[in-house]
Amino acid sequence: MRKLVSGLLVLSALAIQTPVVNAQESSDTSNAISANLPQQQRIDLNTATVEQLVTLPGVGQSKAKAIIKYREEVGPFLEVAQLTQVRGIGEKMLSKIESYVLVK
């Protein structure tokens, strides 16, 4: 009986861990795919509309408007890393969206 219970516990532990591993592998795959996006499919920060910006991961209406407001007040973006100067966008957010945007 103890062997049966022990075996069930081991199987349960493995079953619980399996979806987590698969989810992480899936996430890594999507990051690799986005990093290889051709430049013509990326969004230009200097010409993007609110509608285009909200398609970026983690960017909603308010962040999209903040990007455009920054662009209007400061001038065109010179590099993608400059996004961290926009209110509400930090290094973590930049790492999520930098492979989807470019500066021409």
UniProtKB/TrEMBL annotation:
It comes from the Bacteria. Keywords: Signal. Gene3D superfamilies: AF1531-like domain. GO terms for biological process: DNA repair. GO terms for molecular function: DNA binding. SMART domains: HhH1. InterPro entries: Competence_ComEA_HhH (IPR004509), Endo/Exo/Phosphatase_dom_1 (IPR051675), Hlx-hairpin-Hlx_DNA-bd_motif (IPR003583), RuvA_2-like (IPR010994). Residues 1-23 form the signal peptide. Residues 51-70, 81-100 form the Helix-hairpin-helix DNA-binding motif class domain. PANTHER family: ENDONUCLEASE/EXONUCLEASE/PHOSPHATASE FAMILY DOMAIN-CONTAINING PROTEIN 1, ENDONUCLEASE_EXONUCLEASE_PHOSPHATASE FAMILY DOMAIN-CONTAINING PROTEIN 1. This is Competence protein. It comes from Alteromonas mediterranea (strain DSM 17117 / CIP 110805 / LMG 28347 / Deep ecotype).
